[in-house]
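As a warm-up, study this chain.
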Amino acid sequence: MGREGSSGSSVSESVVKKVLLSYLYVVIWIFLSFTVIVYNKYILDPKMYNWPFPISLTMIHMAFCSSLAVLLVRVLRLVELPTSPAMTRDLYVSSVVPIGALYALSLWFSNSAYIYLSVSFIQMLKALMPVAVYSISILFNKETFRTNTMANMLSISIGVAIAAYGEARFNSWGVFLQLGAVAFEATRLVLIQVLLSSKGITLNPITTLYYVSPCCLVFLALPWVLVELPALRAASSFHFDFIIFGTNSFCAFALNLAVFLLVGKTSALTMNVAGVVKDWLLIAFSWSVIRDTITTINLVGYGIAFLGVGYYNHLKLQGLKAKEAQKKSAPNDEEARNLIDEKNTEGMGRKNDSQA
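Now compare it with the structure written out below.
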């Protein structure tokens, strides 16, 4: 009895430990994601730090992340690269380069939107990500068209449209940039499935940065030379602030590590649910601290979109549970088939004996 009691308590302790660790990973991810968004807004917003060069900021992030990824992979060898299949030059050009180009465009556009839109409204527009991912997945034949799912996507879109209608600081160019960022990011996520996952290649956030960041840096160089370099040369009074940009870049890199922890130790669905919590926190912070104007129509529209996203996550969870149930039942089905085969064989043997 004593042993059973001790084993039961140890099991409950391990469960509690796992739950607490999961919550810790969620809190770390929310904190870092929250920090990166607010920090980028602070740097880029003309009313705050007033450094409106989103391409330059993105290139600083990519250079920093590339350097640390190379350090972790090549120098310290703390992270291993995929070996089966190995990343060949042809595979890199055909798969990683398109993903890197889309990642560059997504980061460029999303950082640019902070100049024109409030943090709260940007988070509301980001609610369209499931809509974009589902629509693009249908185009690439990664998802099948379902009427109920499309109706759910339509409800999210209507909610975001209502939120946009009620936005006090509506800026058409800013909305275009953020919607473009959502479209590029959704296409990138689908292409990761099409170009990498289908070939058996799985990349964690560190190896993703190792392969994608240098490529992203190259793609950003051309628009940077044409758009921002002349303006930076004209701003002769600017001095590179190593503390501001160093800590900002470190937060961006730490966020990738947090994604690795959260998805690796829990699931991608957990990150989606945590993302909804983070969005509400950002909206509250934007209203209370940054003093952005949030209207009742904003909240009603985002509330509708929020319910749609919540239902989408619920469907995803049900799908995951169904897959797990199939995996668990598969061995039982195999055992049942083996027993039936054995009985049939035994019956045939007895029948042959009686005939003999």
